[in-house]
């Protein structure tokens, strides 16, 4: 008997005290809505619900040694999560808001990316080490 497909329940990201990752996500419209202490694990958790929209798992395979993904894989030494991607309606406005709040963008302006989207990335040095991508579906 075939199994029902699994669904993504959550993504667990370890953050250091003072991390600005939750602030960046709040700017994207994804605020923390609850917290819970798990004494047995000696950890505080914060929950950021994701809107119910179709999503995907994107596998990134380098096509040449100079690929940014090949560089990432060389540093990791194994397959690893590269980034979290969030769809926005106006990538230029969101990028401007993020920069006004002190977040650094990888590209000066959004550029064409996969799936017919415009993309930009929030530099991981301003999000505690987590690379966030923002995307806008290209207007036709």
What's the arrangement of secondary structure elements?
Blueprint: H1 21-27, E1 34-38, E2 43-47, H2 68-76, E3 84-87, H3 91-100, E4 111-112, E5 117-122, E6 132-137
Parallel strand pairs: 3-6
Antiparallel strand pairs: 1-2, 4-5, 5-6
Concise synopsis of the structure shown:
By secondary structure, the chain is of the alpha+beta class. The protein is built from three helices and six strands.
The whole-number mean of residue pLDDT values reads 91
Oligomer: single chain
Q: How many H/I helical runs?
A: 3
Rg (C-alpha, Å): 17 Å
Reported for the largest beta sheet, the result is:
4 strands, mixed
Principal-axis shape equals: globular
Percentage of residues assigned to helices: 10-25%
What does this structure look like?
The chain is of the alpha+beta class. The N and C termini lie far apart (43 Å). It contains three helices and six strands.
